[in-house]
Amino acid sequence: MSGEPLLEVTNLVKHFPVKSGVIVDRVVAHVKAVDGVSLTINEGETLGLVGESGCGKSTLSRTILQLTTPTSGSVKFLGEELVGRSRRSLRPVRRQMQMIFQDPYASLNPRKRVGQIIGEPMELHGLASGRDVDRRVQELLDRVGLSAEHASRYPHEFSGGQRQRIGIARALALEPKLIIADEPVSALDVSVQAQIVNLLKNLQSELGLSYLFVAHDLGVVRHVSDRVAVMYLGRIVESAPSAKLYDQPLHPYSNALLSAVPIPDPKLNVARERLVLEGDVPSPIDPPSGCHFHTRCPWATEVCTVDDPQLEELEAAHVAACHHPRNLVAQN
């Protein structure tokens, strides 16, 4: 993983207009779903993206793929700018950037057989035709732990875990370099979650894939990610190598998220200090001044209410946007 990043996102913004009016619609405000996000993903790497529901994780994923047109900012894939390009010119790039959706029930066309769902993308992009499509579909089904006979069935004939395997096979059909997994296991039973996560890790080793793994389950993210980025109210507030962020989180929000993760040892789980956040997540239409987290932060001071902290490297490869970071190792 050297040289130019596979994916480079710089100051990406997506604001949705809020309109009002009976005869003539007029814009009265904006929902700041993604508010200046920057991140990179290298080849063969998994970046975990975590945060509470509604913080903008899914909107960020769709905006990176240009399924949602960004308000401003830059998205470069293999050094090529994607923002502002036409649908036609994006088609070759989209072949190399695929998505695994959260809901395995809604993401598959119920009127098509599994063989069609997986095979049609290959035909549309000219990767295979005729019997080659059937052969490739069977190979992909086998790779994700299904059998060739499943190609003739409809999605409703499968369990949630099997449907997600079909979704993974569809994502692999175009031989992508990057897969964005938008909470791919949140709708599955715990036992099935482990199977899907292990499948994704094995596929990464075999095919050299890169992942943006979006989730709110920090235990799952720790298991799969090389680096983790924490998102709050449309912004990245902390990013670090996985082990470093879990052992020494700097941002108070990261501390709060991690304190809610159960520890397998019951005695340690009861004895540890919990950081419980008070209040609700502020509205993305009218976020607080200064640090967006200060209304819920137990360590906030006056400076937090007026000065918006920027991401900066507080330790090696560990960045955070906070005036009062926690767990800093004393520098000699």
From TrEMBL:
CDD domains: ABC_NikE_OppD_transporters. Keywords: ATP-binding, Nucleotide-binding, Transport. One of its GO terms (biological process) is transmembrane transport. One of its GO terms (molecular function) is ATP hydrolysis activity. SMART domains: AAA. It comes from the Bacteria. Transmembrane segments: none annotated. Residues 7-258 form the ABC transporter domain. The keyword Transport applies. Belongs to the ABC transporter superfamily. This is Dipeptide ABC transporter ATP-binding protein. It comes from Mycobacterium yunnanensis.
